[in-house]
């Protein structure tokens, strides 16, 4: 294994800081600062001689992204684990360069009750038996509920592992209460009691139904304690001099391709089933019609995965996001996936003053977090001042 990526200075410093924390770290850098590459480089720079595989637990929509990042930065081959149970006879080669990526909900066995031993054919049991040398949990805020099955599975795996890293751009989603589960996973001896932690750092009140841990207090003390024990957090404005002006990333998504393959392999037969009225005219311009319909179909089958990715981005960053699109069917479906107050849509159906009003709302309304924009209709004539984050859910294309 060789490092293929030259780290930015702040990333190299981050790798050293992870090492200083002995690999039990809450890596809470802002989105876009390279939490993935820092965690991977640390693992192979400082822990490569240890036995056991590396296990990476992520939301399902990020499995392929981690696979590709490991290959890109370190030339590693990654095995993505699927299914709710370990297949019979499953026996991959497990050595110091073995990497497993698994979805957080796949790690936990179905219908697994608290305070019970996971089934022998569950992934959490199987992976714990491999004695991983490193456990990485991405989008770590998904483990903030201590009693959820995925949190319990991740905690169990962390206790079978020497080093554990939790990656999240938003370690505290609402109140300090959200932090306790993550800290208990990383440093169980230091943070054994949720009650004691919340009594210290929230406005704890005893209600008729029990204790309420809303609000926050002693935040300066909490920040100092975290940075002394396990947390690394840098914001974009802290490292701007190290960053390029623009960063581009390709995020692979897992989508069902069966229908797409049918359309690709026998386009006219597929179109005759889907839209018979279009099939006759399409036969005259088969090449152009084929590309046009395949693009529309590709956008349609990506909708669930794109929705998951956008929700994950929002959970991880809290940032506003500009989403570029090409087809009405795709933009309408994505808009329908969010509350009306949280997003706006600008495409060819929106004209005149209404377009200006929607742009202004995205730029100025703190509740309007998403702008779904047709690349042609919204590509000129305004300045997006609300965010520097943009995602192209569909790529533009012209026949010429």
Biggest sheet details = 7 strands, parallel
State the total count of DSSP E strands: 13
- Strand arrangement across the biggest beta sheet: 3-4-2-5-6-1-9
Per the principal axes of the C-alpha atoms, what is the gross shape?
Answer: globular
Radius of gyration: 24 Å
Distance between the termini: 44 Å
Which structural class do you get from the secondary structure elements?
alpha/beta
The fraction of residues assigned to DSSP E strands is 5-15%
Helix proportion range: 40-55%
Which spans have pLDDT < 50 for at least 5 consecutive residues? Answer: none
- Summed up, the helix count is 16
What can you tell me about this protein's structure?
This protein is of the alpha/beta class. The protein contains 16 helices and 13 strands. It has helices spanning 9-20, 35-46, 63-74, 104-107, 123-129, 149-158, 177-186, 194-201, 219-229, 258-265, 267-274, 276-284, 286-301, 303-317, 328-336, 352-364; strands spanning 24-27, 54-58, 78-81, 99-103, 134-137, 163-167, 205-207, 210-212, 231-232, 321-325, 343-346, 370-374, 390-392. The strands form three sheets. The protein has a seven-stranded parallel beta sheet with strand order 3-4-2-5-6-1-9, sandwiched between helices. It is globular.
Task: Quickly describe the structure.
With 400 residues, this protein is of the alpha/beta class. Helix content is 41%, strand content 13%.
Q: How would you summarize the topology of this molecule?
A:
Blueprint: H1 9-20, E1 24-27, H2 35-46, E2 54-58, H3 63-74, E3 78-81, E4 99-103, H4 104-107, H5 123-129, E5 134-137, H6 149-158, E6 163-167, H7 177-186, H8 194-201, E7 205-207, E8 210-212, H9 219-229, E9 231-232, H10 258-265, H11 267-274, H12 276-284, H13 286-301, H14 303-317, E10 321-325, H15 328-336, E11 343-346, H16 352-364, E12 370-374, E13 390-392
Parallel strand pairs: 1-6, 1-9, 2-4, 2-5, 3-4, 5-6, 10-12, 10-13, 11-12
Antiparallel strand pairs: 7-8
Helix pairs in contact: 1-2, 2-3, 5-6, 6-7, 7-8, 10-11, 11-12
């Amino acid at each position: 294994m060789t490092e293929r990526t030259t780290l930015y200075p702040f990333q190299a410093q981050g790798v050293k800081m992870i090492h200083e924390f002995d690999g039990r770290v809450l890596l809470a850098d802002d989105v876009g600062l390279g939490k993935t590459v820092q965690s991977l480089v640390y693992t192979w720079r400082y822990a490569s001689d240890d036995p056991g595989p590396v296990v990476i637990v992520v939301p399902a929509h990020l499995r392929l992204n981690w696979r590709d990042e490991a290959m890109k930065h370190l030339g590693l081959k990654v095995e993505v684990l699927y299914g709710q149970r370990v297949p019979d006879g499953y026996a991959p080669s497990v050595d110091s360069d073995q990497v497993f990526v698994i979805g957080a909900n796949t790690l936990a066995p179905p219908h697994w009750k608290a305070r019970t031993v996971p089934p022998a054919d569950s992934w959490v049991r199987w992976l714990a038996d491999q004695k991983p040398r490193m456990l990485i949990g991405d989008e770590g805020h998904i483990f903030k509920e201590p009693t959820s099955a995925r949190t319990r599975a991740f905690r169990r795996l962390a206790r079978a592992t020497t080093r554990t890293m939790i990656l999240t751009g938003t370690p505290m989603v609402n109140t300090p209460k959200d932090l306790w589960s993550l800290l208990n996973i990383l440093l169980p001896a230091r943070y054994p009691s949720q009650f004691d932690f919340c009594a210290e750092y929230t406005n704890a009140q005893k209600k008729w139904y029990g204790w309420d841990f809303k609000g926050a207090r002693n935040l300066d003390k909490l920040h100092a304690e975290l940075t002394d024990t396990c947390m690394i957090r840098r914001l974009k404005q802290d490292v701007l001099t190290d960053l390029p002006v623009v960063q581009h990333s390709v995020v692979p998504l897992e989508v069902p391709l069966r229908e797409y393959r049918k359309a690709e392999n026998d386009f006219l037969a597929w179109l005759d089933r889907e839209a018979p009225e279009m099939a006759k005219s399409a036969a005259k311009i088969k090449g152009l019609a084929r590309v046009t319909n395949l693009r529309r179909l590709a956008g349609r089958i990506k909708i669930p995965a794109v929705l998951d990715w956008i929700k994950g981005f929002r959970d991880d960053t809290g940032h506003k996001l500009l989403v570029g699109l090409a087809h009405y069917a795709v933009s309408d479906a994505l808009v329908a996936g969010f509350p009306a107050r949280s997003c706006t849509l600008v495409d060819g159906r929106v004209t005149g003053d209404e377009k200006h009003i929607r742009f202004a709302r995205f730029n100025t309304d703190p509740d309007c977090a998403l702008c779904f924009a047709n690349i042609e209709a919204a590509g000129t004539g305004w300045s997006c001042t609300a965010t520097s984050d943009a995602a192209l859910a569909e790529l533009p294309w012209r026949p010429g």
